[in-house]
């Protein structure tokens, strides 16, 4: 009977660039203690620091990149 089956599959939406050619943005996870929320901050264009803001109160945070750094991917901002 027509209309009994629903096909929700697709090949995706056409894009100007394929998802394989895009490189993922580098980020670190931050727990903003000021508002008790978790978010990501991303590597700045100049690649010298990870910068972002608390998603609730907009408090800025920056984690500098340099030699002798850390392998940690999660931090707490107070």
Write a brief structural summary.
The chain is an all-beta fold and 78 residues long. Helix content is 0%, strand content 35%.
Computed Rg = 20 Å
Largest sheet: 5 strands, mixed
Strand content: 25-35%
In whole angstroms, the N-to-C terminal distance is 62 Å
Decide which structural class fits the backbone: mainly beta
Instruction: Tell me roughly what share of residues is in helical segments.
Output: under 10%
Q: What can you see in these coordinates?
A:
This protein is 0% helix and 35% strand. It has 78 residues and is mainly beta. The protein has a five-stranded mixed β-sheet, with no helix packed on it. The mean pLDDT is 86.
């Amino acid at each position: 009977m027509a209309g009994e089956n629903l096909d929700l599959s697709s090949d995706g939406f056409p894009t100007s660039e394929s998802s394989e050619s895009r490189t993922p943005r580098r980020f670190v996870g931050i727990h903003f203690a000021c508002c008790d929320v978790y978010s990501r901050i991303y590597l700045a264009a100049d690649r010298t620091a990870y910068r972002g803001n608390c998603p609730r109160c907009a408090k800025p945070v920056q984690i500098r990149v340099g030699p002798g750094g850390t392998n940690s991917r999660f931090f707490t901002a107070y």
